[in-house]
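new request in #modeling-help
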Amino acid sequence: MKLEVMRYLPESDPEPRHQVYEVPYSDTGSVLEALQYIKDELDPTLSFRWSCRMAICGSCGMNINGVPRLACRTFLREYFPGPVRIDALAHFPVERDLVISAADFIAKLESIKPYIIPRVERDVSEGEYLQTPLELEKFNQFTKCINCMLCYAACPQYGIDPAFLGPGVIALAHRYNADSRDGAAEERMGQLHAEEGLWSCTAVGYCSEVCPKDVDPANAVNQNKMASALDYFLRFVKPGDKS
Amino acid sequence: MNVRRPYVRRMEPGWWWKNAFLLRYMIREMTSLLVAVYAFVLLAGVFALSRGDAAYRQWLDVMANPWSVAFHGLLLAVFLYHSWSWFEIMPKTLPQIRLGGRRLPAAAITWGGLAATVACCGILLGGTLWLTR
Amino acid sequence: MAHPVKRSNAPVFWLLFGAGGMLAALLGPMLVLITGIAAPLGWVLPPDALSYDNMLAFSRNIPGKLFIFAVVTLFVWHAAHRIYHTLHDLGIRRNRLSMGFCYGISLAATLLAGYALVIIGF
């Protein structure tokens, strides 16, 4: 089967190009395995990221026939008889071949404080923070995010304007905001209220479509729009206003 | 040798054309152009109404023109697509809804919304018939 | 946080967009069918359904007036918000000019509808 793989060697290529490789086809072979075959048997200069091979590390995201997918859970059989076109994950700067720079995503992720900031500090001697199944369910699906950035590659708004905070980071902000143990929602919402926060989203919904973990980031973004809009008006009448 | 020269790819102008999902998104957004046209058709009618019988009669004549009726056939298709696409995306735009301890499935929200459209359209038609009986 | 961020005024327009979109989704098809097809062709409805006298009476009645005002203006605001963002999608980045154009027309349409409905009388 033919694979058209995007190549970009910053020391010699002025811009990305595509190189065709012939890989052995099998019903159970993944795109990641095909890339590994190329690197081991045909061309050791090909660079790509991977680690777990089982859709949990989030490293091998790439655009496969134009669709952002994890190479490890995408099978050659879906594209038989080929060819398959493989590009570096869309919208991100390309470092080399299929390796993109995740610096922007990481900076945004850090900026929303993706960790629990306890509402009430408790000492270990006081025991654990208790949570009902219902409280868990409010944020559980958003904990499934593996930071694979497929949603960013799917999002045209991020592609048009990379200042947009983006689906994944907003889903993770919501994951902590919706957690009953957390008390820092107001701090995180500051960024979400901005034009580059929630309001760059036009509810395309493609982020949720490509998400390999069914996080449904579009839902996290859009249910916060209503909350943000209410806060926009209610902040004037809320007691103890801070803005 | 360590050469870092990240290559930034720009969005192609026709980005929405190459992917069926994004094409459907763009069609959904484009319905707004015809929603605007229809709003201005109604606005013209209201304005004509405020100018008196003769002006309003002119508006009615334009509305009765076969081209106008055919154009409203197109508008009808566009509005039906608007209703469909509005409720199709609704499961993603609403907060989680729980009924009897279970999360309401996406299909229930979409079809519930479309059922509401059928009901509201029925009420509107019934109301119009009742007012003009 | 990395940069100080400015709160967006989008909620104002987004709520109008949402209200208009919901109204269009629920009533749009039947409104188009009645005003643009059934009434002009005399289908189902009596031939004078949209006559001057009928519509004048309807628009002089407060609920009727509000209904007309809501439909016309919210449809316009709904469309304007989407068009503003679609221009952005098609390469005309969100800017003051495109915003002023889209929302300015909506504001003008709102004022015109309000003016017409007021001078129609009560």
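bot summary: The two ends of chain B are 86 Å apart (CA to CA).
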